[in-house]
Design goal:
Elements lengths: L2 E4 L4 H4 L12 H12 L8 H8 L13 E4 L4 E3 L2 H9 L6 E4 L23 H6 L4 E4 L4 H10 L3 E3 L6 H15 L2 H23 L9 E5 L12 H8 L3 E2 L16 H7 L3 E4 L9 H5 L8 H4 L3 E3 L12 H19 L3
Parallel strand pairs: 1-2, 3-4, 3-5, 5-6, 7-8, 7-9, 9-10
Helix pairs in contact: 2-7, 7-8, 8-13
Length: 337
Amino acid sequence: MKRITRLAALLPFIMVAAACGTSTDDASSEAAETTVAETPSETTAPEADSEVAEAPDAEVADDPGEEDEMVYPSAIISLSATATEMLYAVGAGDQVLAVDDFSNFPVETADKMPGVSGYDPNVEAIIGLGPDLILTDGTNPDFLEALDRAGIPHWEGAAAVTVDDTFAQILEIGAATGHAEEAGTLVDELTADLDALLERIATLPKLETPLTFYHELDSTYYSVTSETFIGSTYTSLGLRNIADLVEEESYGYPQLSAEFILDKDPDIIFLACTIYCGETPESVAARPGWDALSAVSAGHVVPLNDDIASRWGPRIIEHMSAVVDAVEAVVNASGAE
């Protein structure tokens, strides 16, 4: 007879906020251990589950040599679009019961949207769905306390700071759902893809000064600094962010002005509101005075996928690939040697 080990016994190790910046080599173990040490309040399992974890195993093995059989969650609710992408990427899609209204990728999630919100979650409605694990971004402590009172396990994946944080969260979700091997394989593939992108940048002809860019969140000129996750991806590829020159405190998301952007004249403009705002290279060129910008006149205005450019999920490598393509286009057009 196989011995059954309840998932609840592992919850103190997997219910962590994973934006801890661990390296990918040891992310699956060190990410959880580091967070347990630093934020014990976030790793405390709900009281009801703690009792289950301390109870004897459901069945005792007749043969001590037999391996344990883990019981993993089969009714997961994800209230984070990024976490949802990670769940499906590691192969846990069949274990997903419901997702929030912003979890629009992959397309299969459309059948699992009961109308729950990750920003303003209705505790009663969510608990009424019967979840055995809830994934959030950890930004709603009142909701997490309510889940604790109800004895429902939860996992927090805070906004990543670096791509390594993304990889760490993928590994944690894989371990929590019984797909550790698939998660490890995925992270290895993403790491190899990232290394290939960095190699493409490293082999480009050298420029006298680094290329500058403007990342546009919407048509009111909100942008991101290098302190943000998405901003850090540009920095890792050797680009210089004009939004970093803003002196006022913006918590990473300054609102620039048309005059500021025209004065800084970035080499590349990245549009991150093409789906929801409808911005295009043509609409940018039609703005008063913008046709004189180097990026516009040279055709280096790059439309991005809004969702990919705003999440820290496994598709972030697609975003970075688009950035590298843009950099290569500028360098090649400049005739640098």
